[in-house]
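FAQ
Q: What does a multi-component entry look like?
A: The components come first, one per line:
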Amino acid sequence: MRYSILSLLGNALRSHRRWPAAWRNPQPKEAYDVVIVGGGGHGLATAYYLAAEHGIKRVAVLEKGWIGGGNTGRNTTIIRSNYLQDQSAHLYEHSLRLYENLSSTLNFNIMLSQRGVLNLAHNEHDLRELSRRVHAIRLNGIDSQILTPDQIKAMVPIINTSPDVRYPVLGASLQRRGGVARHDAVAWGFARAADALGVDIIQNCEVTGIRRGDEGVEGVETTRGYIQANKVGVVVAGHASVLAQMAGFRLPVESHALQALVSEPIKPIHDTVVMSNAVHVYVSQSDKGELVIGAGIDGYNSYAQRGSFRVIEEQMGALLELFPIFSRLKMLRHWAGIVDICPDASPIISKTPVRHLYFNCGWGTGGFKATPGSGHVFAHTIARDEPHPLNAAFNLDRFTGGALVDEHGAAAVAH
Amino acid sequence: MSEQRFRLAQGGRIDRERPLRFTFNGAELTGYAGDTLASALLANGVRLIGRSFKYHRPRGIFAEGVEEPNALVQLGQGASGEPNARATQVELYEGLVAQSQNCWPSVDFDIGAINNRLSFLLPAGFYYKTFMWPKKWWMKYERFIRRAAGLGRAPTGPDPDIYDKRFAHCDVLVIGGGAAGLMAAQAAAKAGARVIIADDRPEPGGRLTGTRTIIDEAPATEWVDRTVADLDDAPEVLRLQRTTALGYYDHNFLTLLERLGDHLPSSARSGDRQIRQRLWKVRAKQVVLATGAHERPLVFRNNDKPGVMLAGAAQAYSNRYAVRPGSGAAVVFTNNDSGWESAIDLADIAGMRVTLVDVRSELSNPRRTLLRRHGIELLAGHAITDVHGNKSVKKVSVAALDDAASGYSGRHRKISCDLVCSSGGWNPAVHLFSQSGGKLSFDDQRGIFIPFESKQPQFCVGACSGTLELGAAILEAREAGKAAAAACGFKKRASAGALPEIEQSEQTPIRLLWSTPSGSGGRARSKHFVDLQNDVTVADVELAAREGYRSVEHLKRYTTTGMGTDQGKTSNVNALALLSQTLDSDIALTGTTTFRPPFVPATFGALAGREVGALSDPIRTTPMHEWHVEKGAVFEDVGQWKRPRYYPLADESMKDAVDRECLAVREAVGILDATTLGKIDIQGRDAAEFLERIYTNNWKKLGIGRGRYGLMCTEDGMVFDDGVTLRLGERHFLMHTTTSNAARVLAWLEEWRQTEWPDLEVYFTSLTEQLATASISGPLARPLLADLAPDIDLDPKAFPFMHWREGKVAEIPARIARISFTGESSFEISTPAGFGRSLWEALIQQGRKYGLTPYGTEAMHVLRAERGFIIVGQETDGTVTPIDIGMASMVSKTKDFIGKRSLSRTDTAREDRKQLVGLLTQSPTEVLPEGAQIVDREGPLPMPMIGHVSSSYYSANLKRSIALALVRAGRSRHGESVVVPLEGRNVSALITAPEFLDPEGSRARS
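Then the predicted structure of the entire assembly, as tokens:
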């Protein structure tokens, strides 16, 4: 059933009892052309584009828990493409453009809200880096500009631009097309659209082994039995290194907890996204009214989806420096996701040493914004057995050859 | 001032001698000390408190404590306002001002209530299905959605209050000051353990203060008072009231929030540094969770109207606050015994005419008789089918349930009343237990989740562990208290005292009913509210299940159930039970959503504590800092340091000041405070070997008395830090690092020493703070220093470049190093920090006759750029090798060092990498912006970029602008022209060598 105001009206007359399931709940089949391991946004998007653009219909997405339950449902929902290096700028911009049409592509309102993303500078070094990034982004054909403290104040009146604070705001970059989207809806929208094209979305199905033969990958062992597959794409974020181990190779990724929190809902007060790398905090306000706040990663490696309280305390200090009027608001909930971070803070979307086994990982703290783009180029990589031009640079070989795509400065948080 | 019409003539734990005035929505009202805002509002007959989140339905007070979903108010005004305060937890104080939220123009007449009329169009997740056409309009739709959402309003100014934090350690931490918590604390304390007991209410006793429980043949509160007195006498017990446990983390680390000022009138708060809230960070050997239980509402049609309340809450208002929660007639709807107790108290204490509607039909005769004795009418096997009334309850409809509770039999009867109480049983408050990693099990009989398997050293006692019966709870708590103390090593057999005597009463098992049936016609249960705050109904839960949102986490996210400020304390179990029912699956398998901290919303300010403002990050200053301040220096933040950027004279602009400072250094002599550079003392048998591995160049043969510039790389061969290291002795070096990298370099050295090369004997000590350094630089530096250090031979032959000497400068012990970052003849003079300012002033005084000019970081940057010296972090960014910056000669071919292998990788060995060059604009006055990108030629976007400007200045010495840049294959392109596209115009520039001045470096050596 197509979603629209008309179908909503029609169903309202039937007390909403005729809405079909957004996706089926199928049993796993014996064999698939492609098995995607990981039912997060990236995995579901990959499955969708495999079916929609490459005509591969026998596709399954295997999810150990519930779809969208990993970092897709834990991030701070920020979308932007203001990256320094050419390769990343083009990849994230590709993703942003897909996002701009995603609600209608998927017929599911993902609530993309292009309310502008500001990255603040607090010292001369920050300003220089900001300027470098804005110049590069502009020449890559992506919108970006520098704001003075007065312009920042005009745009975000509640921000403290006083020169007397510990780390005054000296400037910012602004990407107007940046913003936020409803993270769960991205997963659900891709799931529904993929399901409609025949993709089997199989939840509560954990992959426990990857079977390999002389010709490459043969299938996956799961908690629901062996599933044969011609090709396997792995998109499991924080647990990528675990799956790689099953396939017999190692990845240059480290898994860390990244924490986030929300405030109680309040009436609209903060209409943009503000990020500060120097003091380690980023904040937006959701449509529900909650302030959505992120911080830096925990320093140690972990697979546990919780972080240390110390990080929350530091993040609050930073937040209140920027927004003193938030002091009496209340934290409603804090949580963590596990991010997989590469040495150059850029992702891996690549073929692997095992033939017909593909990995998409290493998105670190910034994978949500890449969801449709990542799925799109990963589907291409799997279907054609060669990378899309946009992800050619993000191969595994770069860590041996040295052609890194260094984006430490572009990440929201220091790695 | 109005009378308190609903205040009972006697009883309650309020202080009738202390009336307090307050205003709600502008109306002046009175309550008593000991009231909460909720009890005071009820005493004044105020029923309509606010509007719900989504449908803006009228809402009243639903609960009496932390679990309240409805009665959220805007407290206070202006900068000290607080949105979303739970009226049930706000203690009344003189002058309290509260307002309804989420309504306009008023709570009585709220425009937003149109949503309620349209609610048939707005089921769970409706927004995912619409607002997609026309595409561009989403941002318009969104504006309306945003305005309708949210609850209260943020304060309008910076917080006038301050917050505090404290660390504490104890043997046994008890959470909860009810019967079980007190008993456990007492038992642990008697055994000799150090105990902290935290209770979220103003006074201990928990639910005992809200009931008429008898202990030892007297009111239970007497037992509470005795036990508390006992605890307060114990020397090692810390009792914290108004203190809520927020989070339970690994290794028995818990956070508690103590409210110190929230209950005080504003006159007592704005006093001298009064602390509003204090965050306790407690590490306990053992934790006893006595967090009690939250009553679960029954779900029935229109169960959200003002006047519908939890039965236990209504009972507590009568007992604890002497408030009659309704005007005359009450209907109590229950499926378990606690509803009976509430009904009896409403009849006896509040003097209400009570009808008890019990879904159970098999009730014993003695029990039926008991009710009759209290004048209560019983409708056994019945359920409420609807609640009537608009902004308050007027009537309820009841009917007999059929055997399967799937429909009704017989006719519906209407009962007039303005209070409807419901009890669906009690959910153990397992939040903290679950946060701690504990696993829950589901008790099918009682329909509750109970703690099953602990992951941390802890005990769950009383209602929190599912032990709802008081006598058993107290026994369990005493045993847990003793066991917790014993686990901490307190095994002495203290007399635990006699167990209090508690009367047993007859029990009838609960009859689980997750929602009343919809009745004839099978209407969707779209007014059967599950989550009152977020307006989630039974129909929404069913819709989610039907649409495939089958995981409990999907249910939560799709319907928003449990996502309100109450985090679903009254709704979660009902919601997931209804989901299980809809999917015909096992509740135990459905499970709960993850319990996340905090247990109750926690003030941001309290989480930040004192680490705001100037204390948000330590400020580091040098011993000469005050001198810089006195001379009007403009500072810049470099890491945590404050460094003088330039010293403007009178009305001088930054450019003029920097030009003057730069000229002075080249023509006479300048002085720079170089204290902030990182200084690491390196000693040990293998110190030289260690440096050999860390730096790219050779160190073993460096003579004592000399210094050498070094570059260090990360494993991937990229430049990480640079600086001059002096050899002080055979086994002793002093390393200089960049200012902002000092801590990272020290950690880097330690990491390699400890994890990779434990066989090396070498030790590191940071001396950054211990030494003050003044650098004098310029052609007149030597005569100036000669005046002050007559004992040191400064002749270049006796004291050559890159050497150091010790001696006295102006009678102050000093180490002098001939290091130059400006390209001029320079002397870096270091002295113990305590002498720093004396040394500085001696130099300044003596320097007058040489035209000594203090210069800041900006001039330093210009001077070094004139000479072509890099700054790590400016010319390098983690992607630049030593070869890229033209320092191939610094990279040893013979030895191994960190990063060496990486330098031969295919990409790192490429000839056309970005390389350091100089850049000269055609116009000598055009100063390129730093960070500008460089292209071969202008063209359409996207334009292929070949490099960027890393440093760019106007050089007063060269009388033109200069820039350093990293350009692809730049070293082979000297003399070529490139374009720097700026916004709206393009600037062409010439690639040159990066050294603009004295490329041989003869001035520094002279």
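Q: Is there any commentary attached?
A: Sometimes. For this entry: Chain B has a mean pLDDT of 95.
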